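Hello, quick one for you while I still have it in my head. No rush at all, and the record is pasted right below.
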Amino acid sequence: MNGDERPKKKWRRLIGIVFSLVSLAVLTYIAVSLISGQSLDISWISDLFNPGASVVMADEYQFDVGRGRVFADLGGSLAAAGTLGIQVLDAGGRETLRDSFRMANPAISALNGRAIAFDIGGTSVRVFSDTEIVASIDAGGSIIASSINRNGWFNVCTQEGGGSRGKVTVYNDKGRNVYKVDLVSGYVLSAVLSPDNRSLAVLNLTDDGSRVTYYNLSNENTDRVLNIPGALLIDMRYLPGGDVLAVSTDSLILAGRNNVGRELYGFSGRRLGGYTYGSGFIALHLLDYGVGYRGRLVTLSESGALLGEIETDMEIISISAGDGFLAVLRSDKLVFYNEALEVLPPSGDFVTATGPAKVLALGGSMALVAGDHSAVVVAAGAA
């Protein structure tokens, strides 16, 4: 009997020591965070004591943000912006954030767990995570575009007064104004911040084409200017190496650091039906002029290498690229492809969301299909 109890006592003593050490580590973390002024993230503590907890995804998501709804992935949560404000739901469909305000033309962009919602043509801006409003801004002028980088820094492009006078204001991850560009000529279309928070690229429409101007955020100097005559650039994004990838109405262009714009892929003679950036690739939906829905889907690497190309003859409503896959919402069904445009089978029957739909690629090879009144998540199967 005593021989059986001795190992049990040692085991209980060992468990007690481990628990005490874990508790001490938790208390030390809290104390250091409070003393240093760092933000206190205790999500890992609950994971430590309850490692087997799993999140059950909702069958359907109900967003109540008015009309004109647009969506963004917050990495485990879903954000929606509409004419009545913003709302965030977790994976289980529970509301974690809501802010009510009016927008006429809502837009949203998100990266690395932060989102920016703004009113195109209006003045309202909200930057938020899944649980808190980081910044609430009145832009002052009419908002043209806005974007956020992976560090939570963001910019707001506005048009002020008559003519082509524009302004780009840069804010850090705390929502503080850190830089401003006033432009007296050249209509501002958009702007993007580099991943290291050091550079701002501003896209302007000029009399003979497009212009990308790079600003150094550590001073008031212009780093370089790239003029692209005869091209109408409509969007751009920073690449990890420091170059800018731009989409025009008839080509994909690399705006290099050497002040040279290089065409990576041309599609003159076809109409751009849609485009989407994935993780390391871009997908284009190109339509043949005057031939109904006939066209093609094209995927390219960020260096311009052709990854896949297929012909299409069905109506494509929306496309969205994720990490290694492309979700294509057709009029008849949702189709998943890999980067080479090989079909990935869905994991189950697809249930259409109510109302006019759009698709948003999520993590884990899943996609949100959202209509006017509800949204559903569909997963892709293995290749």
Summary: The first strand starts at residue 70 and ends at 73. Confidence is low (pLDDT under 50) at residues 14-55.
